[in-house]
Design goal:
Blueprint: H1 37-45, H2 59-62, H3 64-87, E1 103-104, H4 105-116, H5 119-150, H6 160-210, H7 212-232, E2 235-236, E3 239-240, E4 242-243, H8 245-272, E5 292-298, H9 303-307, H10 312-328, E6 332-339, H11 347-356, H12 363-370, H13 377-384, E7 388-393, H14 402-405, E8 410-413, H15 431-443, E9 451-457, H16 482-488, H17 492-495, H18 499-524, E10 529-535, H19 541-544, E11 551-558, H20 561-565, E12 573-574, E13 584-586, H21 590-597
Parallel strand pairs: 1-4, 5-9, 5-10, 6-13, 7-8, 7-9
Antiparallel strand pairs: 2-3, 6-11, 6-12, 10-11
Length: 608
């Protein structure tokens, strides 16, 4: 053991030295002086582990250059990860290199704090800070996803339930096996976001503890650079160099939670203040007595479908031809625009906004209104006692208690429509079949009262592949005929590989839904038919674009001229296709305008 005669003492640092957590046989006193410098330096650079110098004979001792490279690379990756989580924007439009070439003030403040803390407190603070950064990064990614699909950020109070809906949609689109794979990947991503930033901050904090003087100087330099950049307004590609984005996002989330809780109380009062709440049935909808009124929502039928250069030609041709076909059958139409409360999805928010006359743009508002007795268009028909009210809901696959709130005498969900054919991705059945089932189950039967119907058409639901096609009404049957049509259709994965393909197939789906509805009125309508149809929201941004409006077309079709005469002052465009200059109303304005136009009067019955 003569070669263990002299020893080299590692340099002493401030609070944390290179002897932290050294195993007994690897302390500096037991290291030979002539041990290769790389072995000691490599371990000294392995700052994130606090394990000290590797015992002689370890891989770091045998491969000092590789050990240094691994240590430096790991430290660089840790720094990059922390920087990315600090600067990650929550808007997909801001995902540019310039966003990550900034100085985050939170990183400077965090470094200063870690330099001041004792060892145990420093480690705890590092782990908590890293986990917090990971959680914020997760929320930023959810924001990005929600903006892409729904045109709004993720609400931390009530949007968690929508993740389950997203999983159900994936299963309908890519199958159970693919969905399980996506879910596993999502779970691994969440775990990585919570664990890796914590380890990264811990590693960097240990590095700063070992090199306290250099870390303090670097922190002061960066802090000075931040202050100067902030004072001078220095920018890189439009992004300020002095960043405080993490603090701003945290504050925005706190403000969002407070606003959500406040909004719940405010909305409850708004929903209770309904001018038609006490109006008796005898004073409601007197101008439509004896008419069969059909309210139809066409999934994702937005302004983009009729005005986008790629999709509009085909859709506009269907609307123009449909206007002529209906006119030949004795019908007239007027159309306009409504601004939906939702975008890209959450169709029930658009439905409830249109029917209730309240702006319902989040799940909490939806729950509040459907738990009460606010008057909707459909429940107004029921209150009169003059109509039988039914719902055709092919997208509903389980119990739907909201049917009572909407005043529907009977709801036909996907289980009651008698469909024996295949699903078309998310859509449980083709629109033409839904309308044929409506004719068979309700409209075509004799009734002692006229019908008021709410029909949801789902064939134009994302992902728009495979698509059904229009067939003869006498061939619809129980839906088995669609087996061959579904098999011949396109696969969602193939369609979604290119944006133009997605947009093209979306346009075709809208054409199919419109053709089905127009053909139904043409074949089964009568002199008492009144049809109100509209889109519930615009399609996702991949189809409608990053800056699309929330406008959707709406049309009123009637055989009786007096029905349209009552809305002549609305300024709507003749025909099924609203003009560019047609009025644009918020969707929640429609209920009161419709009730007023057709003879409803607010307030209680006059006293006698």
């Amino acid at each position: 053991m003569s070669h263990f005669t002299r020893f080299r003492q590692l340099p002493q640092e401030t609070e944390a030295t290179a002897t932290e957590d050294l195993p007994p046989d690897s302390s500096p006193e037991n290291l030979p002086e002539h041990a290769p410098d790389g072995a000691v330096e490599a371990e000294a650079e392995n700052e994130g582990t606090d394990t000290g110098t590797a015992p002689p004979g370890g891989w770091r001792h045998r491969h000092p250059a590789a050990a240094r490279a691994v240590a430096w690379t790991t430290t660089a990756l840790a720094g990059a990860l922390v920087l990315v989580t600090l600067l990650l924007p929550n808007d997909p439009a801001r995902l540019t290199p310039a966003e990550f070439a900034r100085i985050p003030v939170e990183g400077i403040a965090g470094a200063a704090l870690l330099l001041l803390l004792p060892r145990t407190a420093r480690r705890m603070a590092a782990v908590l800070a890293g986990a917090g950064l990971g959680l914020l990064a997760l929320l930023d990614l959810l924001d990005i996803g929600f903006v892409e699909v729904l045109g709004r950020g993720f609400n931390v109070v009530f949007d968690w339930a929508l993740l389950g809906d997203g999983a159900s949609f994936l299963q309908d689109s890519i199958g159970r096996a693919g969905t399980i794979g996506v879910e596993i990947a999502a779970v691994l991503l969440v775990l990585a976001l919570l664990v890796l930033p914590a380890l990264a901050v811990l590693r960097l904090s240990n590095l700063m503890a070992r090199h306290g003087a250099r870390a303090t100087g670097t922190t002061l330099v960066l802090g000075t650079a931040w202050v100067v950049s902030s004072a001078l307004g220095v920018q890189i590609a439009g992004a300020p160099v002095a960043s405080r984005s993490t603090s701003d996002l945290v504050q925005a989330r706190v403000d969002g939670v407070n606003a959500t809780l406040k909004d719940e109380r405010t909305f409850a009062k708004e929903a209770a203040n309904d001018p038609y709440h006490h109006t008796p049935g005898s004073r409601l909808l007197t101008g439509l007595r004896g008419k069969d009124v059909i309210f139809t929502f066409i999934e994702s039928y937005g302004r983009s479908a009729v005005q986008d250069p790629l999709m509009a030609p085909g859709v506009d041709a269907v609307l123009a031809k449909g206007t002529k076909r209906l006119r030949a059958a004795g019908y007239s139409a007027r159309s306009g625009w409504l601004t939906s409360a939702t975008y890209g999805g959450s169709s029930w928010l658009g439905h409830s906004t249109f029917l209730s006359g309240l702006w319902i743009d989040n799940q909490q508002r939806y729950r509040t209104v459907t738990a009460g007795d606010h008057l909707t268009l459909t429940s107004a028909f029921k209150r009169t006692g003059a109509w039988r009210t039914v719902g055709i809901m092919p997208g509903v696959t389980k119990s739907w208690p909201e049917g009572t709130f909407y005043g529907l005498d009977h709801v036909y969900d996907s289980r009651e429509l008698g469909y024996k054919g295949p699903k078309f991705s998310w859509s449980t059945m083709p629109d033409q079949y839904s309308l044929a089932a409506f004719e068979r189950l309700e409209h075509g039967k004799p009734h002692d009262k006229p019908l008021m119907s709410e029909i949801i058409l789902t064939s134009s639901h994302n992902p728009w592949a495979p698509l059904p096609r229009t067939i003869g009404w006498d061939k619809v049957g129980d839906g088995s005929v669609y087996n061959s049509i579904e098999k011949a259709g396109k696969h969602p994965v193939d369609v979604w590989q290119q944006t133009d393909k997605v947009r093209t197939e979306y346009g075709k789906s809208i054409q199919y839904s419109l053709n089905s509805l127009i053909s139904y009125v043409e074949k089964y309508g009568n002199k008492n038919t009144v049809l109100v149809f509209l889109g519930d929201h615009q399609p996702v941004a991949k189809v409608s674009g990053d800056h699309a409006s929330r406008d959707v077309p709406v049309a009123v079709v009637a055989h009786d001229p007096d029905v349209l005469k009552r809305i002549s002052d609305w300024g709507w465009t003749p025909g099924l296709n609203p003009g560019h200059q047609a009025p644009v109303w918020r969707m929640d304005a429609f209920r009161n305008r419709f009730l007023s136009a057709y003879g409803s009067h607010p307030g209680p019955a006059p006293s006698r």
